[in-house]
Amino acid sequence: MRNSCLLLALLGPAFAWAQQPRPAPASYPYHLRGQLGTLEAPAKVYLVRGEERLDSATLHHGRFELRGTTPQPVTATLVLEREGRLQNHFPYEQLIAGKLRRWYGESPDRLRLFLEPGPVVVTSADSVRKARVQGGPLTVDFQQHEAALKPLLDLHSKALSNMVQGGPRPDFKAHREAVAQLDRAFIKAHPTSWVSFEVLLQQPPLTPTTLTAPLYAALSPALRTSVAGQEYAQQLAKQQVTAIGAQAPDFQQSTPAGQPVNLRDYRGKYVLVDFWASWCKPCRAENPNVLKAYEAYKSRNFEVLSISLDEAREKWLQAIAEDHLPWLQVADLLGPQNEAAQRYNVTAIPQNFLIDPAGKIVASNLTGEDLVAQLAPYLK
Question: Name one GO molecular function term (predicted).
């Protein structure tokens, strides 16, 4: 799994949707109750989604009950804190994209479930992790999806453990593709279920629209015309601007020396438009791969143009020097509000687009140690 940087990925679709008029808000009720042995205060349960705390309750004789509303039926995580205080239980990897639990696992006293009017009933002798969950049709759909996913997660978790102990690196690409194939099959088999919409929402941030648009189209009219469905449609429309085959949006930004650089200046060449930032660790880890590709193809009508999402000029320049990046670097120093990033609908970094000599986007998100090989078909 290739991580994306925290700031933009946390903004995720909301970052892009904020640029569009939003439909009227909706409200869906949820009801969650449970019995966790005979636990007493200060033990509490917390209902969280991402970094948002939705609700909480103190346990009395092991019992709790939570009621509330969400903009649409969604997954959430129930966390048991025996000492009462909610700990920082969101590791960096889990904050990145909401469903990276699929690759990194979860803490012992937490459990994902699907919120619905229900009630959704959680019962366990002690641990939330080991709880039995019963609910309505959405809970059934969610559990079916999770059960189908579990063998893939277990296999990948074992491979990660072996890697930590000195074994071979897991095939992250194959794992992602297997999970994506399972998700696609589930959505097509359950077009009317909010669980399918949630699975669609949780696709990795850089999934191309060639994969997500057909999944959205497979959803029922009721889901597509819901508030959340309309928002997702807006996002898809915006992503089409930078879809494979589209004319690359033009932009102009300045080098550290103040020299204006326009994307049109690269007509007649292949150019890898690369979005990054000095504070983005995955970006910095990717820079050696980009450098290797640049050295391999710079004599074959190929260039790299990097756009930084930095705000601090000094840190930007320091990172360029430390990573030994010889190609042109530009920025407007507006951070995530970088004009080029907004034109390209960049919601997570590192992210790149390969543009051909005619100015069309022919590939995107070409990254990793095999970047040279990925570019080879285009730079013969």
Answer: oxidoreductase activity
Mind listing the domains of the chain with CATH numbers? 27-135 (2.60.40.10), 147-225 (no CATH), 252-375 (3.40.30.10)
Separation of alpha carbons 29 and 68, rounded Å: 6
**β-strand pairing of 270-276 with 351-355:** antiparallel
End-to-end CA distance of the chain: 29
CA distances to 277, 298, 369, 372 from 295, rounded to whole Å, are 21, 6, 14, 10
Contact criterion met (CB below 8 Å) for 16 and 341: no
Strand partners, 28: 70
How many angstroms separate the CA atoms of 141 and 143, rounded? 6
Given a cut of 70, is residue 196 above it in pLDDT?
yes
Residue 191 reports pLDDT greater than 50: yes
Residue 174, pLDDT > 90, answer no
pLDDT digits 0-9 by tens, 270-319:
999 999 999 999 999 999 999 999 999 999 999 999 999 999 999 999 99
Q: How far is CA 378 from the centre of its chain?
A: 28
- In sequence order, the 6+-apart residues with CB closer than 8 A to the CB of 33 are 63, 64, 65, 66, 119, 120, 121, 122
* Phi and psi, residue 282, nearest 5°: -60, -35
Q: Which two tokens stand for residue 168?
A: 């071979």
**Cβ atoms within 10 Å, residue 216:** 18
Predicted model pTM: 0.73
